[in-house]
Amino acid sequence: MWNTSRWRSAALSALFLLGLGTSAEAAEPVKVKVFVGAMFEIGKNTGDRAGEFQNWYERYWQSAEPIAVKGALNPVYCNADGVCGAVLGMGKVSSSASMQAILLNPQLDLSQAYFIISGVAGTPPSRGTIAEVNWATWLVDYDLGHRWAPEEGKPGEPTFMPRKGYESVRLFQLNPALVSWAMKLTGDTPLKDSDSARAYRQRYPQDAARRAPFVGTGTHMTGDTFFHGPGMSEQAQYIAKLYGADDYVITEMEAAAITLVIKRTLGSDRVMSLRGAVNFDQGNPKETTLEHLDPKPGETAGGFAETVENVAVVGARMTDHIVSHWDQWQAGVPALPAQ
User: Fold this and answer.
1) Range(s) of the domain holding residue 43
2) Is residue 1 one of the residues assigned to a domain?
3) How far apart are the first and last CA of the chain?
4) What is the pLDDT of residues 225-248, one digit of tens each?
5) Which GO terms describe its biological process (predicted)?
6) What pLDDT shows up at residue 26?
7) Count of domains forming the chain
8) Maximum alpha-carbon separation in the chain
9) Which residues of the chain have pLDDT under 50?
10) Which of 84, 89, 130 is nearest to 103 (CA)?
């Protein structure tokens, strides 16, 4: 004769185990193929003036549910193809804190992910132009040293000296093969421009500043100080060359810090830094640095909307290639095809 209590116990055990299985399946982490980190959004993620995230969001995550991550500034969005992204926050501390929280969150499996650090930036007029898009070859921390006022040193000599002990956290060479792939896949991307940006470029005598937008590479300088003026620009170039990096071409506020966090957790072979230039790091010869910092109405560079769209279009070409050829990219950056 069947024991009723034993039957009830067996049934409850089965339901309990079934519940555990369902819970485990629901908790399966998202396997991320490409993670895009932007620094700010102006308003909503869609439907208004676009900041650094909106063009990405509208391309990949319109129907995605937000994934709340404790410790991150904003939620993460993921699509069915394993492309995820979030607004990390501006500056070294906020952005890297968000990235660390996301990396450690059990809802996301980033163990094989490629990272695109995406945003706007400044550029020296001797190296770049408004609305250009640039892939980093090196990331250099603008800080982590000693500085003094020019009048307190010898005339004409640098006013920056690196501080010992920061060698492993102030300089990052990004994977050359990955940079080469990025240029191979995106170097010919048609970029948008604007009449206001075209007119603004003509204020500068440098040939580079007057160029139409293009896709290029070089060193990205990470500093919480939003530096301006030819003197600070020359110092940034001095630091880049002092550390053995390529020419300084982009000034931004987050990439070196974010890369350090990723490197300590997963390594940095799959990290990319992608920036679009929305301003020059100094005024033209007819304006002072303070005038450049506080322009009159209608005197700004223009081209912001076009630049953030250019960044997303260029970045999407890289993203879509990785995802659509995941069998080749999953284990690491593949060899470049023979020329």
Assistant:
1) 31-120+128-137+171-217+254-326
2) no
3) 79
4) 889 999 999 999 999 999 999 999
5) nucleoside metabolic process; transmembrane transport
6) 57
7) 1
8) 103
9) 1-25
10) 84
Residues 6+ apart with CB under 8 A from 36: 56, 60, 83, 84, 85, 86, 115, 116, 118, 315, 319
- pTM value? 0.90
- How many other β-carbons are positioned within 10 Å of the β-carbon of residue 270? 22
Q: What is the DSSP string of 237-254?
A: HHHHHHTT---EEEEESS
Spatial CB neighbours of 32, under 8 Å, sequence gap ≥ 6: 78, 82, 83, 84, 108, 109, 110, 112, 113
pLDDT of residue 17: 39
Q: With respect to residue 58, please indicate whether it lies within any of the assigned structural domains.
A: yes
**Closest to 96 (Cα-Cα) out of 168, 16, 39:** 39
Q: Can you give the CATH number for the domain in which 266 is found?
A: 3.40.50
Structure tokens at 115: 């990272």
The single-letter code of the amino acid at 18 is: L
Tokens 């995550």 identify what position? 61
